[in-house]
Structure formats: C-alpha cells, structure tokens
Amino acid sequence: MMKTILMGSAALAAMTGGALAQDTIEVTLGVLNDRSGVYADLSGEGSVVAARMAVEDFNAEEKGLDVEILSADHQNKPDIGANIARQWYDQEGVDAILDVPTSSVALAVAEISSQMGGILIDSGAGTTELTRGQCQPTTIHWTYDTAALATGTGKAITEAGGDKWFFLTADYAFGHSLEDETSKVVQENGGEVVGTVRHPFPATDFSSFLLQAQGSGANVIGLANAGGDTVNAIKQASEFGITQGGQSLAALLMFVTDVHALGTDVAQGLQLTEAFYWDQNDGTREWSERFEERHGAKPTMVHAGVYSGTMQYLRAVEAVGSTDALEVAAKMKEMPFDDPLFGKGYVRGDGRVIHDMYLFEVKSPDQTQGEWDLYDQKAVISGEEAFLPMIEECDFTKTAG
C-alpha cells in the first residue's frame, strides 16, 4: 500500500493559531485499483497521478482542505478490494474511494462505502448495476458504463451492416453487462446474436474462443472484455487472419493505452467509444501534457475521470464544510460542472454522471503524426442518449435530507 500526503494547510494552521485550525477540513482519499494486472496501464498509478493533480489544481491547501491520498492494489479480486475498503474506512479515516476498475470489485466497494459512511467515485468500472440494481446513495459513477459503450460502438457497427454478432465475453460482472447491453442495441437496430463464449478473467490464450467465433457465421466478433484481455484477443485474431476472412472485430471497451500497445498497423479501423481523448481540444491537450510529464504516457478516460470526479468531490466538500458522505454526495448532485476534460455535465440522482460520449476510429499508420496520434472522432453522443434512463428507486435526491 502506498501513501502520498498533500499537506500544507494543517502546518500553516499550527503556526497561525487555533482559529485557522478550526477551519481546516481533513480529507483522506483512497485510490483503489489494479496496479499490477491487466488493467494497470489504463488505471493503476496513473489514477494516483490524476487524483494528485486534481488536489493541486483545486488549490485545496488555500481553501482550507488538508488532503491525504492513499493507494492500494485490489488485484481485480472482490474479497481483496472489500477488505482494503473496510480497513481504509475503519482504520485510516478514508472519506472517499476513487477509481475501482473491475465491476465485481466496484459493486462490493460501493456497498461497503454506503455501510461505513464513505463515498465511491468510480471511474474504472463499467457495470450499469452501480446505478441500477445495486445503486447506493453514496455511489457516483463518473466516466462510462456498458450501456454507453453499447450505444456508441454497438449501434454504429450494426447500422453499418454488421448484423450478425458473436460475443467473446469476460466471465464476470462487467463482461456479462457489456454483452447484455450490446445485444439489446444490436437487436434494436435489426441485427442478431448468433452465439457467445465466455472466457476466464484474466486470460492469455484466446485461440479456442476465436476458433468458435470464426466458425459461427457471424460477421462481427464483439469483444466484451477490456485491457490486456482485449489486446491479447486482437493480437491473436490478427495472427489467425480472422479479419482477412470477412469478419470484423468490435472492441466494445478499448482505451488509448490498448491501441498504443497494439500499434495502428494491427488496430487500424477499429471503432470504439470513449468519454475522453487527450487530443480533443486545447483543454484536454494542456492537461494531458502535464499528466504525461508526470506519468510518462498519455491519460486514459479512466485517469481523466479520476481527475474530474476528485475535483467535483472537493468542490462539494468545500461547499458543505465537512466530509459527511450523504451531504457531500447530495451536494455533488446539486452542482453541475464544466471542466476542461469532460465539458459540461451533471451528476444525476442515481449517481450516474451525464456527459457526452464519443465514437472514434483508430487511424491507419500513414495517418498518424506521432506515437499517441491514434484516433479520428466520428460522432458525438449526448449524455442523455448514451446512458440509460434513471429508475425511480435509485433517485436518491428524493430521499435526501
């Protein structure tokens, strides 16, 4: 477990007397994610960097917030993630947990956060259950979910003629959710699902699964997985010559770090949906340059979500004057935001953050002008279209206070 302390106001308070000390709000944030496995590149240490940047850019010290940041590796295992969350809340005084990729871990941490008086601001997990069947008043789901991915990539590919799908699905909550949501979109747009196979999470050898997909009669193989699993599946599909045989791959969740790892010679032409890309505008470029100077790579949408979610949390703490979980979560939902990474958005009553999503296509090698010049933007999907409508029983603004 790693600890980073961003301090200043407490020391200043000690030097200038009791009045200022009374005004200081101590805040402890925990970045909980995969720091060593298949999601480490898209999440990992980069999310700690993003949280630290948010604290600094917010000028927390000047605003009387004394912020401490903890981090730990949940190893993509719900029991490990749950134990860390309990320890943080019980022994370390953590107020909010950030990031938490891997949907099964996120769902466990969301429940513990609600029980133990903390907030989960999730950037890395995709399951829609965080704001539906297993919604909690103190869960904020920031960056994306499987419904938004399906609305973007699934709809675009089906409308373009990819009407027979076979799913290669990671066998846990996220993969199941992504397959389910994309299947609905495919069928709503006139396509059909001809088969599915579920692979262990994580996996390294996809050969038998790809052979099933190859013989399925599908014209689209939907990859309902992420991170290293997606990269390995695409590499092996390329080795088998699957795309040369008339089938196409749909990377239903893919990150800029995945495309960078594959290279545009392998990934060119893939369509994917993201909430953020470093080269969208002056604001994203400026922030991403500062991030890369610290981290050595461009940020993913997960890193951007950690930054933006932390900023919104700190705004709410400042407005409320405490770290009370229910009050801060309610305040986060009251205040719309407009930041350089996600633009204008708001936190809905169920904790779902509503912002635009984007459909991208990976450039060919002759189109790129640098190692991270990877995407062409094809479409903007409004937040209201991208995300599922709120269900009434998860609208916690009706019960707040």
Description of the structure:
The protein is α/β, with parallel strands linked by helices. It folds into two domains: 2-144 and 280-356, Rossmann fold (3-Layer(aba) Sandwich); 147-275 and 363-386, Rossmann fold (3-Layer(aba) Sandwich). Helix content is 41%, strand content 21%. It has helices spanning 9-16, 18-23, 44-57, 78-92, 103-115, 146-159, 173-188, 207-214, 227-239, 256-262, 264-267, 282-295, 301-320, 325-334, 383-386, and strands at residues 2-6, 25-33, 65-73, 96-99, 119-122, 139-141, 164-170, 192-199, 220-224, 248-251, 271-274, 337-339, 343-347, 353-354, 357-362, 375-381. The strands form four sheets. A six-stranded mixed sheet has the order 1-3-2-4-5-6, with helices on both faces. Strands 8-7-9-10 form a four-stranded parallel sheet, with helices on both faces. Helix 13 (301-320) crosses helix 14 (325-334). The radius of gyration is 21 Å and the shape is globular. 54% of the residues are buried. The model is unreliable at 7-21 (pLDDT under 50). This is ABC transporter substrate-binding protein. One of its GO terms (biological process) is amino acid transport. Residues 26-363 form the Leucine-binding protein domain. It comes from Oceaniovalibus guishaninsula JLT2003.
